[in-house]
Amino acid sequence: MQSESNANFSSLNTNLNLNLSGNQLPCIKQEPNINVKDNLRQWVLKHNISHNATNSLNDILKEEVLNIPQDVCTLMKTPEISHEIVSVVNGSYIHLGIKNMLVPVLKKYFNMINNCDGVLILVINCQPINKYVLPGGIFHGLTKPASVNEFFQPFLDDFFEVSQNSLCVNNKLFKFEIGHIICDTLAKKILLNVLGQNAYYWCSFCTHEGEYIQHRMTFPEIDVPLRTNLSFCSKVYEEYYKGDSPLEFLDIDIIKDVLLNYMHLLCIGIIKRFIQLWVKGKKDVGLMEEDKLNISKNIIDIKPYVPSEFSRQPRVLDDIDYWKATKLSFFLLYFG
C-alpha cells in the first residue's frame, strides 16, 4: 500500500561538521538551535544506514556529550507493536495494519493508492526499494497464496474499520477512500481471481475472445464490447472467472480503478519485444548488421548529453536482453 502523503523525507542539511584526520575520532561542532536527532533520523532514512552502523555512530556522538539515544530503535522512534504471524495455505502472513502505517505520517486528507507485488527477499542482490512504502501486510511462502480471499481478508477488515470510523490524529479527523489499485499483470490476475494471460478471455478491459496466431494469443479485433464494473461483479462472461474476487467488496470501479501496469505491459512487454525482433529476429523483420551498428553508434553518441535525472544511460542494441524498464521507457520517449 502506497500513500500519497505529503510527508517529506528531505535531504539532510548537514549541521554536524566532521573533521577526520589520521586515526582521530571525528571532531564535532554543533551549531546552535539544531535538532540533531531529527537530522540524524532523516540521514539514516535517506541513505538506508544499517542499524549496526547507526548504533556505532550513536556511541561516538554520545562521547561528545550530545543528547543522542544509544539505540537506533529509540532514535528512529520504532513503535513497540507486536504483530501476530498467521499460518495460511502455502506460507505465513503478518498484517501490520493501515492505522499503524499511516498515523506517523498523517498530514491531511488521504486518497490511498494500493499496490500488490512480490519481492525475492531471500535473494542478496534484489533491487532496492527507493520510494517510501507503507506495508499494510506481508505474505511469505515458497509459492503464491493459495486463496486470494484468505490473503486479502485482513486488509479488507482493516480498511472497512478505518474508512467507517476515520482516524483522529492531533485532534484532526482523517477520512479515507481507495483511489486506485496498482499491480503487475500476475498480481492483478490473482486479485481479480480471473484467468491468466494465455487464456482466450484474459483481457481485463474487453470481452474479445482471443485467437492463437503463430503460437501466441492475440486479440486482433478492435470494435468489441468493453467490460464494466457491473458485468464483472455479475460475472456475465463466465469463461473469464476462476471465482469471486475480494475487490468486489470495495466501493470501487474494478475495471477502471485496477490500473494497467505501464512498466510490464508497454516497456518490458511491447517495446522490448519489438527491439528483440529488430536485433535478433528473422531476415524479414530484423535489421541489417550495418543498420544495427549505425543505430548503436548514434545511441552511444548521445550519452554525454543525457541529463543526470535519467537513472540509466543508453546502451547498444545488442545489449537489449539487459535493458531495464527505465531504459526501455527512455528509448520509447526520447532517443528511440
Structure description:
Among the domains are: 16-75, no CATH class; 81-182, no CATH class; 263-335, no CATH class. It contains 11 helices and 11 strands. The protein has helices spanning 36-47, 51-63, 72-75, 98-102, 148-165, 185-192, 229-234, 254-257, 262-280, 289-301, 325-335; strands at residues 16-19, 27-30, 85-88, 91-95, 110-116, 137-141, 167-169, 172-174, 176-183, 211-213, 216-218. The strands form 5 sheets. The protein has a 3-stranded antiparallel sheet with strand order 3-4-6, with helices on one face. The protein has a two-stranded antiparallel ribbon with strand order 1-2. The protein has a two-stranded parallel ribbon with strand order 5-9. A hairpin with a 2-residue loop joins β7 and β8 (172-174). The longest helix has 19 residues, at 262-280.
